[in-house]
Amino acid sequence: MLPWRSWGFWRAGLARPGALGLLAGRRGASGASGPLAGAGELRGEPDRYGGVSVRLGPQERWDAAAFQRRLQAAIQQWRSEGRVAVWLHIPILQSRFIAPAASLGFCFHHAESDSSTLTLWLGEGPSRLPGYATHQVGVAGAVFDESTRKILVVQDRNKLKNMWKFPGGLSEPGEDIGDTAVREVFEETGIKSEFKSLLSIRQQHTNPGAFGKSDMYIICRLKPRSFTINFCQHECLRCEWMELIDLARTENTTPITSRVARLLLYGYREGFDKIDLSMEELPAVYTGLFYKLYHKELPENYKVMTGID
């Protein structure tokens, strides 16, 4: 059985623009490590999990009927070769090929700004292909100045009820959580800061603000590197440095902001080691790649296992 995570890695690591090409209309070698030729010169690129990726170029001049015949013949060949799935990438300007593909059993997997991706399961039993990403990740920065015991807060301009909250926004693809927090804080308030730790994670499903999908909202503790506010007039109605104890006590805030303010107050009084999830970058199993791991600080002797029986 193909593991979900393997297919997920295949999608995330390989199926990106330029990574897999359809060599339609060209002749060349085929085999386990090269393009898989389908009848009618429709070819795809094999992947390590038994599937094949077909990426149409903007120059294809087939009509819908001709494309359907070529795709059907290619599917038959890929079945005979034991391929278990087809990923079909269609540019937006070639959308006339979507209906012929759907008539052969292809389903939408996801769409991007300039293309759509369809899939066809060729293996035995129900499809084991992973669904596309169904979460959005929002990040906020709790910028706390320990010397003044003040915290940076904003009120959104476009909210029906203006409540104090931490500045933040959606994380960009490929952007680390801490970098998102620092960027969003600067864009909204003009305050420069640096990442210190992760404080909390909220998980919420069927969120209207996330197109009905699941939403992750992460709050980071940041240390200020500047103090003069120059907030974005388009996004924020108000922005100020507020006493942390006042934010923890006020009713004019969101429940999550109130809870994190109290968490910060506890950390300030008892030690941030009691609340911080620190970050460490570690090498991934994939050569040349790294990942960020967030957890409570681990004593050095446990990191190296020195003097531990």
Automatic annotation (TrEMBL):
Residues in Nudix hydrolase domain copies: 134-266
GO MF terms held by the record: ADP-ribose diphosphatase activity; FAD diphosphatase activity; NAD binding; NADH pyrophosphatase activity
GO CC field: mitochondrion; nucleus
Subcellular location: Cytoplasm; Nucleus; Mitochondrion
Record flagged with keyword Nucleus: yes
Key word Mitochondrion present: yes
Pfam families, A to Z: NUDIX, Nudix_hydro
CDD domains noted in UniProt: NUDIX_ASFGF2_Nudt6 (cd04670)
Keywords, sorted A to Z: Cytoplasm, Hydrolase, Mitochondrion, Nucleus, Signal
Enzyme class (EC, first level): hydrolase
Cleavable signal peptide: 1-15
InterPro entries: Nudix_hydrolase, NUDIX_hydrolase-like_dom_sf, Nudix_hydrolase6-like, NUDIX_hydrolase_CS, NUDIX_hydrolase_dom, Pre-Nudix
UniProt subunit comment: Monomer and homodimer.
Entry-linked PANTHER family: NUCLEOSIDE DIPHOSPHATE-LINKED MOIETY X MOTIF 6, NUDIX HYDROLASE RELATED
Protein name: Nucleoside diphosphate-linked moiety X motif 6
Lineage per the UniProt record: Eukaryota, Metazoa, Chordata, Craniata, Vertebrata
